Each structure stands twice: as structure tokens, then as C-alpha cells.
Amino acid sequence: MQIEVLKSKIHQVTITEANLYYVGSITIDEDLMDAANIIANEKVSVVNVNNGERLDTYVIKGARGSGVICLNGPAARKCHTGDVVVVMSYAQMDFEEAKKFKPTIIFPEKNTNRLVK
Fold first, then answer.
1. Is 50 helix (H, G, I), strand (E, B) or coil?
2. Is 8 a catalytic residue?
3. Which listed residue (25, 45, 89, 90) is catalytic?
4. Is the separation of the CB atoms in 9 and 103 below 8 Å?
5. Catalytic, out of 45, 58, 66, 90
6. Can you tell me the distance from the alpha carbon of 83 to that of 76, in angstroms, rounded to the nearest whole number?
7. 14 Cβ partners below 8 Å, 6+ apart?
8. Distance (Å, rounded) from C-alpha 29 to C-alpha 66?
9. Of the candidates 105, 85, 116, which has an alpha carbon nearest to the alpha carbon of residue 16?
10. Mean predicted lDDT score pLDDT of the chain
11. Which portions of the chain are predicted below pLDDT 50?
């Protein structure tokens, strides 16, 4: 049996931009992507802490070290600059493998979206 489990989580980052007239997606600082084990074009769920909105989209690499978290295209209507979101990706795996699997969860610095060292 295959089940879907949490693979990666970027916990509570601040939206730095919302670009309505872009093709669509979420732009994430490449440092955060690496730390969370998320790759370009990977499907992610975005949950807005401020208003409860949830959406699925895909990831675009943002400038490394910039702290950028930008919702693009129609998804930009689901948030405002300054909103706090959680970004999560999932993986399908065998039930027994999933019991042992440990997701990668990061907690970036509040307001800057940079990795805490």
C-alpha cells in the first residue's frame, strides 16, 4: 500500500511579494529550498496563517539569500505582502517505509525568511 506523507515543510515564512500578473507559482529563496529539501517545479501546498487560505502550486527558485517568498499569478489573490504562510510538500511511499520516514522541517527567522544559524 502507498500512502502520502509530509516530505518537507518551511514553517511560517512571511510573504515578501504577490505578483498577480505572473504565469503562476511560488518563488522561494533557493537557500530555503535547499534546507527544506524542496526542488524547482515541485508541487507544494501553501497555507496562509493570516486568513486560512490553502492552495497548491509549484516552486520557482528565488535569489539565494534574498528571503523571497512570492506568490505569483492567481495565487497572489490568496495573500498579501506580510502574511505568514507554511509551505509543505508531500511524497508517496510504501506504508512500512513511511513509518520510519522523517520529514525535513525548517524554521526560518521571523520577518527575514532567512535560515537561523
1. coil
2. no
3. 25
4. yes
5. 58
6. 11
7. 69, 82, 83, 84, 85, 110, 111, 113
8. 6
9. 85
10. 96
11. none
Q: Which amino acid is at 52?
A: G
Top CATH class, 2-93: mainly beta
Query: CA 3, CA 20: separation in Å to the nearest integer?
Result: 34
Tens-digit pLDDT profile for residues 28-37 = 999 999 999 9
6, three cell numbers: 509530509
3-class state of residue 82 by DSSP: coil
22 is catalytic: no
**Listed residue (7, 24, 15) closest to 47, CA to CA:** 15
pTM score of the predicted model = 0.95
For the chain, what percent of residues have pLDDT higher than 70? 100
Residue 49 three-state SS = coil
**Chain center to CA of 67:** 12
